[in-house]
Specification:
Layout lengths: L4 H19 L7 H30 L2 H33 L1 H4 L7 H14 L3 H6 L6 H6 L3 H18 L4 H22 L2 H21 L3 H26 L4 H7 L1 H10 L6 H10 L5 H14 L2 H17 L6 H16 L7 H13 L5 H6 L2 H28 L13
Helix pairs in contact: 1-10, 1-13, 2-8, 2-9, 2-10, 2-15, 3-11, 3-16, 3-17, 3-20, 5-18, 10-13, 11-12, 11-16, 11-20, 13-14, 13-20, 14-15, 14-20, 15-20, 16-17, 16-18, 16-20, 17-18
GO biological process, one term: dicarboxylic acid transport
Subcellular location: Cell membrane
GO molecular function: symporter activity
Length: 413
């Protein structure tokens, strides 16, 4: 009997943890498998996002519908991000990680190194906004600047809508390109179990229990918070707003979740998220093609939740009692910071420095979580991609009512 892709990836996931724990850094011999798989994914991201987003925009039929869709999506992301920060703060108060964790204060060298890394990546907010608009869209695609690719795709899609019938050949071209890229994605996914093993085993081997145990309470607080957010917020979204079974949703999105957890990259998970949400959950191509790429760059519930946990951890470690006003500031800043987080590994540390600065906490605290940031990044990235998919389910139902999810048998129980 042939195992399903979900089962194969789950087995690879478990084996990677076991082999990494047993053989330690010796598992770096399988790292090329993970690197090759990530290259295959990166190879299809730009053409897939470009073509699918153009198809998504042109299939909406009008700019008015696109604005309505975008408004619903951004509104949903803001609400869930705010809830995520609230849950993160609650986990920080519940677990008291700063008082429980058995760690020493970071050295000056460690602090300088982490702050330098964050400063290198941190751009002025005006520059971030300006960089969304590409000076040269071809260069933006060549450098895989996803926000620039999304902007170009939206502009091109709107242009096709405005031109109308005369642009039909261009529309047909991108329709065909999107279909081709989905076929290629399907082929690449056949080797996903090997990729997951090659990515995860070296990570487990490198960190090991010695690094994880002193800060285990931080990992636990984030993991429990993300689990609650996934089960109640996303589960509630697909059940109450999407009117489909949460079990169907979570089972269908398992491959994408496991890959996001392993790779710690929302952007790299775009192809698999789109494939899963369409084929397994039943969201239409026009909805998923718009929301999944869009969400991968602006929806970071896991990062928002992480900010809540990490800020309280650092405050507790340094013996700082945050006031109600400062807690409110954390909630607002972390929500907005999460919306602007790029879907790449490690960006959470940058957002953490922004939040710490807003409430006057020592930036040295960044070094406290740096050792386990890769582990934390895996947890929050898995949460992020489920948030994108739950948003797609909500928008699909709200836009198309009883006609939603017609591509699959309706399982609403």
């Amino acid at each position: 009997m042939r195992l399903s892709l979900v089962t194969q990836i789950l087995i690879a996931f478990i084996l990677a943890i076991l082999f990494g724990a047993i053989f330690g850094e010796g598992m770096f011999v399988v790292e090329p498998l993970g690197d090759l798989f990530l290259r295959l994914i990166q190879f299809i991201i730009v053409p897939l996002v470009l073509a699918s987003l153009i198809v998504g925009v042109t299939s909406l039929g009008s700019g008015k519908q696109m604005l309505r869709l975008g408004g619903k999506t951004v509104g949903y992301f803001l609400v869930t991000s705010f809830i995520a920060v609230t849950i993160g703060l609650a986990m920080g108060f519940l677990f008291n990680p700063g008082e429980v964790a058995d760690i020493d204060e970071p050295t000056e060298e460690e602090v300088d190194e982490e702050l330098e890394d964050a400063e290198e990546e941190d751009d002025d907010i005006i520059d971030v906004i300006l960089n969304i608009v590409p000076e040269n869209p071809i260069q933006g695609m060549a450098e895989a600047e996803i926000l620039q690719v999304i902007f170009f795709a939206l502009a091109l899609g709107i242009g096709i809508l405005l031109v109308g019938e005369r642009a039909a050949p261009v529309k047909n071209f991108f329709d065909a390109l999107a279909e081709i890229m989905f076929k290629i994605t399907g082929g690449i996914m056949k080797v996903a179990p090997l990729g997951v093993f090659g990515i995860l085993a070296p990570v487990v081997g490198e960190h090991g229990l010695a690094v994880l145990m002193p800060l285990f309470v931080v990992i636990l607080a984030l993991a429990v918070g993300c689990l609650l957010h996934i089960l109640f917020i996303y589960g509630g979204t697909v059940r109450l707003l999407g009117k489909i079974s949460p079990l169907r949703f979570f089972k269908g999105m398992t491959p994408a979740f496991l890959f996001a957890f392993s790779s710690a990259s929302s952007a790299a998970t775009i192809p698999l998220s789109m494939k899963n949400v369409q084929e397994n959950v039943g969201v239409s191509n026009k909805t998923s093609s718009f929301i999944i790429p869009f969400g991968s760059t602006i929806n970071m519930d896991g990062t928002a939740l992480y900010n809540g946990v990490a800020v309280l951890f650092i405050a507790q470690f340094y013996g700082v009692q945050l006031s109600f006003l400062e807690i409110g500031t954390v909630m607002i800043v972390a929500t907005l910071a999460a919306i602007g987080t790029a879907g790449v590994p490690g960006a959470g540390l940058i957002m953490l420095t922004i939040t710490l600065t807003a409430v006057g906490l020592p930036l040295e605290g960044v070094a406290l979580v740096a050792a386990i940031d890769r582990i934390l990044d895996m947890i929050r990235t898995g949460t992020n991609i489920l948030g994108d998919s739950a948003a797609a389910v909500y928008v699909e139902r709200s836009e198309y009512k009883d006609k939603a999810f017609q591509s699959k048998t309706n399982e609403t129980s």
